[in-house]
Amino acid sequence: MRWAIALSAGAWILIGAVVVTLHGRPAPVAAPAAVERVQGDAALARCRDLGEAAAGDPACRAAWADARARFFGEARP
Q1: Global confidence as pTM
Q2: Which residues contact 70 (CB under 8 A, 6 or more apart)?
Q3: Inter-CA distances, 14 with 2, 3, 7, 18, 19, Å
Q4: Burial degree of 63 (CB within 10 A; 0-12, 13-18, 19+)
Q5: What pLDDT, on a 0 to 100 scale, did the predictor assign at position 59?
Q6: Is 60 exceeded by the pLDDT of residue 77?
Q7: CB of 44 within 8 A of CB of 21?
Q8: 3-state secondary structure 2-63
Q9: Domains of the chain by residue range
Q10: What is the rounded CA–CA span in Å between residue 2 and residue 8?
Q11: Angstrom distance (rounded) from CA 57 to CA 49
């Protein structure tokens, strides 16, 4: 009976070694793409810092409109 336990344990160790060997190493992760800073980022940051008051600020409304135009690529109807 002991030889059966030893044989079973050896088989599981062998199976584990094969799985680890065949699985291989993970593929290297690509570096994140560089983010280009836009001039309007400073205006958007200022509007973010204003909080609720930014809703009535004409400069913030213009900055948001420019950001939407950049994001969507064209004027929306």
Answers
A1: 0.47
A2: 38, 40
A3: 18, 16, 10, 6, 9
A4: buried
A5: 94
A6: no
A7: no
A8: HHHHHHHHHHHHHHHHHHHHHHCCCCCCCCCCCCCCCCHHHHHHHHHHHHHHHHHCHHHHHH
A9: 38-77
A10: 10
A11: 12
Q: Which residue has the tokens 């420019």?
A: 66
Tokens of 60: 């913030």
Q: What is the pLDDT of residue 57?
A: 94
Q: Token match 């030893």: residue?
A: 6
Q: Report pLDDT digits (tens) over 17-61.
A: 888 887 777 778 888 877 777 666 888 999 999 999 999 999 999
Inform me whether the pLDDT recorded for 62 exceeds 90: yes
* CB-based contact 47:57 (threshold 8 Å): yes
